[in-house]
Design a protein that fits this description.
The complex is a heterodimer. Chain A is mainly beta. In chain A, about 0% of the residues lie in helices and about 55% in strands. In chain A, a hairpin with a 5-residue loop joins β4 and β5. Chain B has no helices and eleven strands.
């Protein structure tokens, strides 16, 4: 059974700092990995999707890397801003065999960026 | 539409009552997913559809939960005889061509069972 863990569970940084969020998964047979953010009381916003054949994806100040063999992904946020404060979740999609389609979510990292 | 829409935003039911939640996926998306968020970050997959057909129902509690996606209607998730432990936020998501494409999530429906 796939298990996804995120470290740290919570993080507080001053504005302007660069930071790294970690995601690890136990079963390396994944199809892709997605990073989401969730604002309090809101749904999930997709940030980046990395296919299992890719090593990284970039969008603006965000860079996500994937090392399938070691079961790890990192989300790098450059020059953090107060608006980045949210809970960040990673989720893996299983190898696309049969009818498997469900995302398995990590435990989340709650990020606070202070002024 | 360009966003996944979910109604209602909040739903309160007494234990044993029925609850019905609705989801309109992004126009043109073929796949719809339902997830249950019980604790703050604990997401549980329930069921997925490819158009009107059930694609993956491995997460669905069969006894009281049912779901449908009919043509030209919002998808629905129905819980018969709700229990206290059904209290959660239920999220709907859709993806465009493949179940492994980016999943776009709706704002969720918060179900409270008293």
């Amino acid at each position: 059974k796939q298990e996804v863990t995120q470290i740290p569970a919570a993080l507080s940084v001053p504005e302007g700092e660069n930071l790294v969020l970690n995601c690890s998964f136990t079963d390396s047979a994944i199809y892709n990995l997605q990073w989401f953010r969730q604002d309090p009381g809101k749904g999930l916003t997709s940030l980046l999707l990395i296919q299992s054949s890719q090593r990284e994806q970039t969008s603006g100040r965000l860079n996500a890397s994937l090392d399938k063999s070691s079961g790890r992904s990192t989300l790098y946020i450059a020059a953090s801003q107060p608006g980045d404060s949210a809970t960040y979740l990673c989720a893996v999609s299983p190898t696309a065999t049969g009818t498997a389609s469900k995302l398995t979510f990590g435990t989340g990292t709650r990020l606070q960026v202070t002024l | 539409g360009e966003e996944v829409a979910q109604t209602p935003k909040h739903l309160v039911r007494g234990e044993g009552q029925k609850a019905k939640l609705y989801c309109a996926p992004i126009k043109g998306h073929s796949y719809v997913f339902w997830y249950q968020q019980v604790l703050k970050n604990e997401f549980k997959f329930l069921i997925s559809f490819q158009n009107e057909n059930v694609f993956d129902e491995t997460g669905m509690p069969k006894e009281r939960f049912s779901a449908k996606c009919l043509p030209n209607s919002p998808c629905s998730l129905e819980i018969q005889a709700t229990k206290l432990e059904d209290s959660a936020v239920y999220f709907c998501a859709s993806s465009q061509f493949l179940p492994t494409d980016t999943q776009y999530f709706g704002p969720g429906t918060r179900l409270t069972v008293l």
